[in-house]
Specification:
Elements: E1 2-5, E2 21-23, H1 26-34, E3 41-44, H2 54-57, E4 59-60, H3 69-74, E5 79-83, H4 89-95, E6 101-104, H5 109-122, H6 126-141, E7 150-157, E8 162-163, H7 169-177, E9 179-181, H8 194-200, E10 204-208, H9 219-225, E11 230-234, H10 236-240, H11 246-262
Pfam family, one: Peripla_BP_2
Keywords: Signal
Organism: Hydrotalea sandarakina
Length: 273
């Protein structure tokens, strides 16, 4: 689902190609780059790390949940791109008085493909966007999930412990890989206790590189907590970014699935994937 909030006097950008865009969503910032919108993007967040050079050439308007309203106003945007999950509703309502805000809500692959198509329409990049969506769809059509489903806990935060549960884009990616989400009976991104994690008995614990930057030094804690689980450090962008990063996700997932299926005696708990 995608919708516009428009409290300004400006026309909606699907009627006039936007010339001054602010993106508050890292994965969609990268999508704008892929669609050749470099000359039209004037502002991004500090978490918009792709492409890296934009952090030096574009104005940083804060974080995804801590926007600098005055910086946004000073840029005189004619389109602001936001996301229901990544941005705060009250801040979006505030900036909607500055310019039309396109709010996306992406929870699965179909939502992502729809968003890419609509981005193409808004930016008058239909051909590029349609080709991108087609390539992503073809890539995922070639993805063969795990032959034997493996129960997994996908950890996104350390204190408190938080996991990706159902009704999230991450959950969809886990299902497409053939994993069973140990917390599929919970919604969104719940905080859990150590006891709940132990009781869920996951065969694998995936430690995401974002939003919490899990590293090798954190693996020992989880291995002590669940000595019979395999601990894997994973690239969070591959599981949670729903723009042009999806072009690379399938190759990443295929390698992960191959390694799991070929190695019954895994040593992922000692090595970063």
């Amino acid at each position: 689902m995608h919708f516009f909030i428009n409290h300004s006097n400006l026309p909606l950008p699907n009627k006039n190609s936007p010339k001054r865009i602010i993106s508050l969503v890292p994965s969609q910032t990268e999508l704008l780059y892929t669609l050749g919108m470099e000359d039209y993007v004037v502002g991004i967040t500090k978490f918009c790390v792709h492409p890296p050079e934009w952090k030096h050439s574009k104005t940083i308007v804060g974080g995804t949940k801590q926007l600098h309203i005055e910086k946004i106003k000073a840029l005189s945007p004619d389109l602001i791109i936001a996301n229901k999950e990544e941005n705060i509703r009250e801040q979006i309502e505030t900036i909607s008085h500055i310019a039309p805000v396109w709010v996306t809500d992406v929870n699965n692959l179909n939502d992502a493909l729809s968003m890419i198509h609509q981005m193409g329409e808004i930016c008058y990049k239909n051909e590029l966007a349609n080709e991108l969506a087609k390539n992503i769809q073809n890539n995922f059509s070639s993805l063969k999930p795990l032959q034997t489903h493996k129960k997994v806990a996908y950890i996104i935060w350390k204190q408190p412990l938080m996991v990706a549960a159902s009704q999230t884009f991450i959950h969809e990616m886990l299902l497409l890989c053939g994993f069973v989400n140990a917390f599929q009976n919970k919604l969104r991104y719940p905080a859990i206790t150590e006891q709940e994690l132990i009781a869920s008995a996951p065969e694998f614990i995936l430690l995401s590189s974002e939003p919490y930057p899990f590293q090798e030094k954190h693996m020992h804690y989880f291995q002590q907590l669940l000595p019979h689980s395999t601990i894997i450090l994973v690239d969070g962008e591959m599981f949670s970014w729903y723009g042009s990063r999806l072009l690379h996700s399938v190759a990443y997932f295929k390698t992960l699935i191959e390694n799991i299926q070929k190695n019954s005696q895994l040593t992922f708990n000692k090595n970063k994937y």
